[in-house]
Specification:
Layout (H helix, E strand, L loop, with lengths): L4 E3 L2 E3 L13 H10 L2 H7 L27 H4 L6 H7 E5 L3 E7 L10 E5 L5 E7 L19 E7 L4 E11 L3 E8 L18
Parallel strand pairs: 2-5
Antiparallel strand pairs: 1-8, 3-4, 4-9, 5-6, 6-7, 8-9
Length: 200
């Protein structure tokens, strides 16, 4: 049975948007995680797309990361089996497109996950959302200590990606999938098809 996919709108962000200006440091994160509840641990815990510990060492998820320059088996946090890592988060590429798939933490699958293009010339994919149900933080929660209210992961877009042909969706309410077509004259990717990573 084919997975159910809910398309996400990919929206451009203003070049000088005032957000993610407060950096998340390791000692601050450790304290936050220690006093946080179950939802916080699911969102930011080991193995989550939004965890600062995703890439071998502490890395602020609000900083753009050149994901496609690395192999997932070499980059993802050690300690999980290869099968578990590839099932949770994976990325790959073909001659025609880049593919990204990540299981969403239980606390993130029930909230509004947003995908935006931002940064210089819009070459950063920004995946964010608000995990806190309360209204605390308001609309400007991204401007301050954002981790107290929401989550983010920012990924650099490869130079040969066609930003006009980017697709994002939630598959079966549990996974985020992104496809970036390449700027290739012989591209024959079907724009209506989300290709699952691992089958490239």
């Amino acid at each position: 049975m084919s997975p159910r996919r809910r398309a996400l709108e990919v929206r451009p962000e203003p070049r000088k948007a005032q957000k993610w200006r407060v950096p998340l440091y390791e000692d601050v994160f450790s304290s936050f995680l220690a006093r946080g509840g179950e939802t916080v641990r699911r969102i930011f815990g080991e193995g989550s797309l939004f965890s600062p510990l995703l890439f071998e060492k502490f890395f602020d998820p609000a900083d753009a990361f050149p994901l496609w320059e690395f192999d997932p088996e070499a980059l993802l946090l050690p300690g999980h089996s290869s099968a578990a890592k590839s099932a949770a988060i994976n990325w790959s590429q073909s001659d025609n497109a880049y593919f990204f798939r990540s299981e969403l933490p239980a606390g993130a699958s029930n909230v509004n996950v947003e995908v935006a293009l931002c940064g210089d010339k819009g070459r950063v994919i920004e995946i964010s959302g608000k995990w806190e149900e309360k209204e605390a933080g308001g609309e400007n929660w991204r401007n301050n200590q954002w981790w107290e209210h929401g989550f983010v992961r920012r990924l650099e877009v490869p130079d040969d990606a066609d930003l006009m042909k980017m697709e994002a969706c939630i598959a079966d309410d549990v996974a985020l999938e992104i496809k970036l077509s390449k700027n290739a004259s012989n591209s024959h990717i079907n724009d209506g098809e989300m290709k699952e990573s691992g089958n490239v």
